[in-house]
Design goal:
The chain is an alpha+beta fold. Helices cover 56% and strands 10% of the residues. The protein folds into four domains: 135 residues, Acyl-CoA dehydrogenase/oxidase, N-terminal domain (Butyryl-Coa Dehydrogenase, subunit A, domain 1, Orthogonal Bundle), CATH 1.10.540.10; 105 residues, Butyryl-CoA Dehydrogenase, subunit A, domain 2; 127 residues, Butyryl-CoA Dehydrogenase, subunit A, domain 3, CATH 1.20.140.10; 158 residues, Butyryl-CoA Dehydrogenase, subunit A, domain 3. The chain is globular and about 75 Å long. The two termini are 20 Å apart. Its cofactor is FAD.
């Protein structure tokens, strides 16, 4: 990992060096082997059955989950003491990214490894781990996460499912309905959230064979045809008291922390899908002839490919930076015996940042992929059409991007974040980009001071302000991740071998900071004129010292020649 552990929660207030972050260039031999094994599993086992899976022949899904369990893919980041392989968050991120090629199957797999297994792995009793977790990790039992209700989606704590303790004190009677539950059609057990006595939000393990548990027919969805999505109806279900996960009334601690990890897994899956969309688009552009030449020879197509690659490079930099930071934190937790909930919560902001950024970049990439395919991109026999439909749910999964933006802003407002000290960047690698990063950090702190001074920090009401705070933080994290990764690559391999990374970083910093500067200027009247805020905003929208058109053509050409995303 990094040479020293850096509290990434303060990325807005501290100077971070390239050696403080993890990048994909730091993959160990073991991690590369895991990547290769996962890719082969998807190519050789999942893809040949994908047609049947997307025809809802779920016996194939169940069989593949068992195969994944036998390979250790489900238990990668579970502690050895709980039956896992304890390979770390980086390995788990790699597996999730590579599994994305399996489209709908990756949803089942993600539900199993993340929100299905982790409540028991992180918060369950030893008895629960022995009875349930080991079978989840081997794939013998499939888990589902039952949180959402017809009247409680984003506002999960407003759920109406109830749990009443029996007079004998040996079981709870649970009643309610859970909606849109992934894996529900073939799950063996459910992680169910219910309110004890109608008020105390609590997590339970509910087996599908308990009397009173039923599931609805499969939902008809826009995409992800090969994932199971059903309602789960709980009609006076008797659940043993030993199936309570954690403490009565503390279910929100489990739900929110598991969702944090789930958001990071969605980021990794979105990254993997974006890379696949780039590969499909480049392949099509190279093969398709129009006006006597390949589509990939046309500069507007090159521009699209370059934009897809640039955003994906930055996304990849942020996702693996976060994976490395969380891996360090989990290792520190193990050494010090720290609380797991607090350890995960340290990275709640980063997980939300990655979730928002990755899913929105994915939507951009698959949309451009369809456009490059032209009319063929609209035809269902082309994979890009499936990716386009499948991708849309990602901005809704694990909390909508709107609620995640409010989470980011609210969390950051509560922190005592101090402005970063003036840093001399003269003569450093990527000097201009580093200066822009410092400007953005100053803009963030200026904005926080302005909204507090003017009483605009009630973010449930000031949601436009919250979204802007979040977007500044997202872009700072993204830009800084790209700069640090690129600088690290230059230090290791020199500038000549790092040209693609340098170009991607320069363009992303320029274009994203310009967009933020314009948004800031458009919000000035709402904030009441603030001279410092205004001056920073105007500096951000200055023209780039680079020939952006030429750099994008170079990025595209490298990708076209490689036939896929390269970094």
């Amino acid at each position: 990992m990094s040479n020293k552990t850096v509290n990434q929660q303060h990325f807005l207030s501290v100077t971070i060096s390239p050696n403080d972050v993890f990048t994909t260039e730091d993959f160990t031999e073991e991690q590369l082997m895991i990547s290769d094994m996962t890719s082969k599993f998807v190519l050789n086992e999942v893809l040949p059955r994908l047609g049947k899976i997307e025809n809802k022949e779920f016996s194939h899904t169940v069989d593949l989950i068992k195969q994944a369990g036998e390979l250790g893919l489900i238990s990668a980041d579970i502690p050895e003491s709980d039956g896992g392989l304890e390979l770390g968050k980086v390995a788990a991120t790699i597996i999730t990214e590579k599994m994305a090629l399996g489209r709908s199957f990756s949803i089942t797999f993600g539900g199993q490894t993340g929100i299905g297994a982790l409540p028991i792995a992180y918060f369950g009793t030893e008895q629960q781990k022995q009875k349930y977790l080991l079978d989840i990790l081997t794939g013998e039992k499939i888990a589902a996460y039952a949180l959402t209700e017809p009247s409680a989606g984003t506002d999960a704590l407003s759920g109406k499912t109830t749990a009443v303790l029996s007079e004998c004190g040996s079981y709870y009677v649970i009643s309610g309905e859970k909606q849109w539950i992934s894996n529900a059609g073939f799950a063996d057990l459910f992680i169910v959230y219910a309110k004890v006595n109608g008020t105390q939000f609590t997590a339970f393990i509910v087996e599908k064979d308990y009397e009173g548990v039923t599931t609805s027919p499969e939902e008809k969805k826009m995409g992800l045809e090969g994932s199971s999505t059903c309602s789960v109806i709980l009609d006076n279900v008797k659940v043993p008291v030993e199936n309570v996960i954690g403490e009565i009334g503390k279910g929100h601690v489990i739900a929110f922390n598991v969702l944090n990890i789930g958001r990071h897994k969605i980021s990794a899956a979105s990254l993997g899908t974006a890379k696949r969309a780039i590969e499909l688009s480049v392949k099509y552009a190279n093969e398709r002839k129009q006006f006597g030449q390949s589509l990939s020879n046309f500069n507007l197509i090159k521009n699209k490919i370059a934009d897809m690659v640039i955003k994906t490079y930055v996304n990849e930099s942020a996702v693996y930076r976060t994976a490395g930071a969380m891996q360090d934190a989990f290792a520190e937790m193990k050494r010090n015996g720290d609380d797991i909930g607090k350890t995960i919560a340290r990275y709640a902001v980063e997980c939300s940042i990655n979730k928002v950024m990755s899913t929105e970049i994915l939507d951009f990439v698959v949309d451009e992929g369809v456009q490059i395919h032209g009319g063929y991109g609209y035809m269902s026999e082309y994979e890009i059409e499936t990716l386009y439909r499948d991708a849309r749910i990602s901005r809704i999964f694990e909390g909508t991007n709107e609620i995640n933006r409010i989470i980011i802003a609210s969390s950051l407002l509560k922190k005592d974040l101090q402005p970063i000290e003036n840093e001399n960047v003269e003569g450093c690698i990527l000097q201009h980009e580093k200066q822009i990063l410092l400007l953005l950090k100053n803009l963030f702190h200026s904005l926080i001071l302005t909204i507090k001074k003017q009483g605009l920090d009630y973010l449930d009401e000031e949601q436009e302000t919250a979204a802007f705070i979040a977007d500044i933080a997202i872009n700072i994290y993204a830009i800084e991740s790209a700069i640090l990764r690129t600088k690290k690559a230059i230090q290791a391999n020199g500038e000549e071998k790092s040209q693609q990374k340098i170009y991607c970083t320069k363009i992303y910093v320029h274009e994203s900071s310009q967009q933020l500067g314009l948004r800031a200027l458009n919000l000035l009247n709402h904030f009441i004129e603030d001279e410092g805020f205004s001056q920073i905003s105007k500096r951000l929208i200055m023209s780039s010292p680079e020939d952006i058109v030429k750099l994008k053509r170079r990025i595209a050409l490298e990708t076209i020649n490689a036939g896929k995303y390269i970094n």
